[in-house]
Amino acid sequence: MSNVLRFIDPKILASISGMELRAKTVVEGFLSGLHKSPYKGFSVEFAEYRQYTPGDDPRHIDWKVFGRFDRYYVKEFEEETNLNCHIVLDLSNSMNFASNGMTKLEYASYLAASLAYLISRQRDGIGLVTFGDKIVHHIPAQVRSGHLQTILLELSNLKTVPRTDIGLPLHQVADAVNKKGMIVLISDLLDDPEKIIHAIQHFRFRGHEVIVFNIFDAAEITFPYHNTIKFVGLEGEGEYTAIPHSVRDEYLARLKNHIAFLEKGCGSNRTSFSLLDTSKPLDFALQAYLAARAGKM
Amino acid sequence: MHVLNTLFLPLLAGAVLIPVIIHLIWRNKALRVDFPAMRFLLQSQKPISRWLRWKQLLLLLLRMLIFALLALLFARPFIADNKSFGVWEKHARHVILLLDVSASMSSEASQRKARSEIEQILSNLNEESTVTFVRVGNGSRIIVDELPFTNGIERIIRETMQPGYGVADLHDALRQADNKLSSGDEKRGEIYVVSDFQSSNWPDYVKDIRLQSKAKIVLVPVAEDELENAAVEEVSLPQQPGDKLKTRLTLTGHADFKKLTVDVTLMNRKAASESVANPLPNENTFVTFENINVPLNSQLAGAVNLDLHDDFTFDNHQYFVLNQNRRIRILAVNGEQMRGTGDELFYLKSALNVKSSSFEIVETNPMQLGSKGIEGFDIILLANVRGIDQQSIAQIHKLVEQGGSVVFLLGDKIDATLFNKFFQELAGCKINKTTFPTLDNSNGLHLLAATREHFLVEKATAGENISARIFQSWQLQPEAGANTIFSFDNGKPAIQELRVGKGKSLVLSFPLDAEWSDFPVNQVFLPLVHSIMHYCTPQKSSTSYYLTDDVIPIDKGFDVNANIEIAYPNGRTEDTLLKGGIFDKTQEPGIYTFSQSGKKMYVAVNVDRRESDSHFETTENFQSRLSTDGEITNNSQILRAGNFSLLEIEQQQKLWRILLILLIMFILVETIFANRVPR
């Protein structure tokens, strides 16, 4: 896989048909660029032999093969895991916003698909929870083959719901997932931040590792509007006509405070918090996941 | 404040509206954006929205002000105020006020406006001013003549402003006012014309009214814009028994009446009433009254009345006097008196003495004509008369000159030489011999209408050919001025007429007996004979009314050296001597009754129908007909500025400079304010 695809533009990604192909494109491109093998773990199930290359751990050299062929081969093993990862995806109507052609929900679904593909490839259990003001769909985490397709199919057919209440469904997820694992929350987190942090605390209390991807559209972050504009809330908040330059500073300050509060709340709960905007390649998100995954190991 | 370019005043109103229109057009065009992070915007909604509202309102006001100032700047304003420009007060002025008091000025709106304008004009006069106030009706009536302006004068003017019923001759009044001011008066002259400038008063021929003085002419139009009027335009009275009374109504201006009720009163009693539903505006509406019974030999006064309240009430009535049913007196001079059908007048008398006939025929012969006299007769009929005495010829001539008629029936007693000697001038033709077409053609000759538009042709034959056969006739040689009405089918004249003075002379080239024709037994005989007599009846009987301010001649039956009792339309009576036998106090429309020794005469007086005209001249049009070295304006407000040129005042004041500075300031404020945002 070429390096070129590593930082693939989400817009180009959107033009690829099929969620699986998209996920594969992202993940393979991402993995091929890593210098270090990601296949860590304590699995002992033999997979194949591979010629030794500098950087491989000498402990994995199969000396019996060396004795027979006078060449260095390293043993590769199928990784085994008992980690269950739940991707918790926000379907609220505010996710249905796009200033550059790709909605936050589309971006989030690609991210979720890529993560699911990556997790599945690592032989971890993968599950999916979608929610609005309550849980919309829950696919429990499994490792079996074909489960990935179920999740990808679900991700291909997402529809937003009118309202959101992030706190309540997250508490329900925390109660529903018994086995300790990893929770990947993908949302714009446009709700009361205290409730969100409280929900994260609930996950942490249940022993879950939590990764938060806070998705924004670039327009939300930069507020690039001019002239008089009638802003209409996507979740029935009403409308507000304003001259953008007169409210921009105040808006950005409130947004910054909101994000800062979330980031601080996540930090204090040892939760990974990543701010993404829909123009950014998905690799950043995957990297954040792997970093968090490594911490778990 | 006043302006030089009044054209810009409507523009001013329009300019003020421009920002409002732009505001309204663009107001709802704010770009709509569906936005997710509304929670961060809504937290500061209230203060920003309020600020925006105030800002937009203030900006709108500022922009309206800017546009208004711009339009005002182009209009070139100036202040005409006595206090500021007291120098003009010192100039003595002679103000001539011409007030149109024609009937059309009686509408409520015109009255109100005229009063208001005159009040305004008077309020600007001071004791230095000299005033002439003229009521302009059919003639100009000077009420105040060059008197210093005082409270008393003001009161007189206010009390004599009510309109009359005449037609205003402003043209003449303007000339008189001009003469007054151009006669060496050192004072500054101003002529105010307060009128509705009704178009009918200003015919096209009044094109160039050249004024000699350098007086300032101020035209003050007071016409009502949306006139709603219905008028009794014309009344057609019955001419003979069987005729119906018809009336023509007109609706003008914005008149839109659902129903018109028209009634006829005779001697103050309602005689008939008709209704017209949904009459068409700006169209004629004809109403015929079928059952008006008028006794013979009577004189009745009456009116056609429209029962409604419109802008012009004076034309809702048309007064008339119905005296057409008086008998038409005919003196028939019989040139061949015989018994039975051989008598020259046998068939004619039979035709005229039918039931309900209005004809009174008195027969005589040529020998007795001189002693009988022709006094009191309307028509002299010379039937187969060979000759009469010179005195009788002179009397007949006089009668015809005054409106009576003479009819010649030429038969076998006529001698061509004598006829040409005595009657050629009166008859308008010569005769030479008789023709005998029957010798060759037993069918005789037929009469053909020489013109289709003659009263006799229309009434008697209805345009059809006459089937009667004429076997013998005299050959007529019409003279200049004579007019052939009927001719034979061989082209020779059969019946001709000549207008003599106010009357007519008719010549029939054949007698109206059965000797030379079968005419008396033809179906057209009766209508033709009746039509001839009606046609020859003096026209004075058809004059049914006079106009206001007309002079009325009193009938000869009255003794003008004795008192005559006059009853006016308003009920007032007066017993007075009418010098010269004329009455001229006809200012009001209605029925005037003259009585003396049991004899009565009714006279109907109406308002000139030109006063119902709903078209008014614009002051610009009127202005274009005037040529003067002085100034003409249609703005009465400039009185205060005396006789100085408005341009001079404007240039002296230079108000535009202040306005320009204000304009620049407002533009600056607008620019700064428009770019200001709340922090």
Describe the protein in words.
The complex is a heterodimer of chains A (297) and B (679). The two termini of chain A are 27 Å apart. Chain A folds into 2 domains: 45-78, no CATH class; 84-296, von Willebrand factor, type A domain (Rossmann fold, 3-Layer(aba) Sandwich), CATH 3.40.50.410. In chain A, α4 links the parallel β3 and β4. Chain A contains 10 helices and 10 strands. Chain A has a 6-stranded mixed sheet with strand order 5-4-3-6-7-10, sandwiched between helices. Chain A is of the alpha/beta class and 297 residues long. Chain B is an alpha/beta fold and 679 residues long. Chain B has 5 domains: 2-80 and 651-675, no CATH class; 92-223 and 616-641, 3-Layer(aba) Sandwich (Rossmann fold); 228-322 and 608-612, Immunoglobulins (Immunoglobulin-like), CATH 2.60.40; 328-541, 3-Layer(aba) Sandwich (Rossmann fold); 555-602, no CATH class. In chain B, the strands form 9 sheets. Chain B has an 8-stranded mixed sheet, with helices on both faces. Chain B has a 6-stranded mixed sheet with strand order 6-5-4-7-9-35, sandwiched between helices. In chain B, strands 27-33-32-29-30 form a 5-stranded mixed sheet, with no helix packed on it. The longest helix of chain B is centred in the first third of the chain and has 31 residues, at 45-75. Chain B starts with a strand and ends with a helix. The chains are: A alpha/beta (297), B alpha/beta (679). At the A-B interface, β8, β9 and α9 of A face β2, α2 and α3 of B.
